[in-house]
Amino acid sequence: MPRPREFSEDAVLESARNQFWETGYAGTSLADLTAATGLGKGSLYGAFGDKHALFLRTLEGYCSDVVSDAHKELARGGRAIDDLADHLRISARVGVEGSRTRGCMMAKAAAELGSRDAAVQAIVSSSFDGWHDELASCIARAQDEGDIAVGVDADTLAWTLLTLLRGFEALRKGGVATDHLKAALDQVLETIPRSV
Which fold does the domain 59-191 belong to in CATH? Predict the structure, then answer.
């Protein structure tokens, strides 16, 4: 009879995710993972497979959280235009207290592995599709509420905003000052065509 696991799978995945998030896939060794999770090599691989399989599990969890957070922020129940603006500020991490500085794990994974790892590319692509759908739904709601012009293509605007958010991520990681990014985001929000 196999022995029951003596660890929390969720806690181990969170520790592994934080390690991968901090040092990337290539920069994370097996020793790093065993130190971060508190599990030996045998237990770690026995429960989660090899390093790549563990990375994919942590990336899937992270990406699922991103899309879930987007849904919560974009469907808070206030006016859709306000939900949209708040979500963009949170996602761009400008003017938000306590924003994380280590960047987006999804963006890091895409930059490091996306062009040569089909599994990573599929997870990231699916997540961006889900995020886009949440943005487009909020934009359509803002159109129904009379705050965004009906002639605006919600799908295209959603992709535009998502592209801008990824650009904010790169600029922030490149050291661009937060006040510049905040001003740029305010400008973006002002350029969304409004109903007259």
Answer: Tetracycline Repressor; domain 2 (1.10.357)
